[in-house]
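Supplementary Methods, section 5.1.

A reviewer requested that the exact input to the structure prediction be made available. We therefore reproduce it here, unchanged from the version used in the analyses.
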Amino acid sequence: MLLGLIVLASAAFGGDAEKCDTVVGELVPNAHVARELADVIIRGRQTPEERSRYVLHVEPDGETGWFVFQGPPNGSPDAKGNVTVTAGGGGLGIRIDKCNGEMSNVYYQR
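The structure derived from this sequence is encoded token-by-token as follows.
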């Protein structure tokens, strides 16, 4: 139900019909919609405790999609202002197509 509402709302408020072979244009026109779709999937697969260990990142994947992935939060700056960034960490990653909302390349990071 929630997923259907998100898709309908995204179609009504954006979407470039010229870029996509759909009447309504892009079903996932922005990072906010991509984040919401990924969050629906993640909530179905992880407990609240598991989700709390990650930050959800959204990045463009070329012109046709979004790459949404969980990563560990960055640490706080040390006395010299350096921040330790950790890669991987076991979170879920998903590619979401902008035009049709198809999710592919779903994996857990190592």
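The CA atoms of residues 75 and 88 lie 14 Å apart. These observations are discussed further in the main text.
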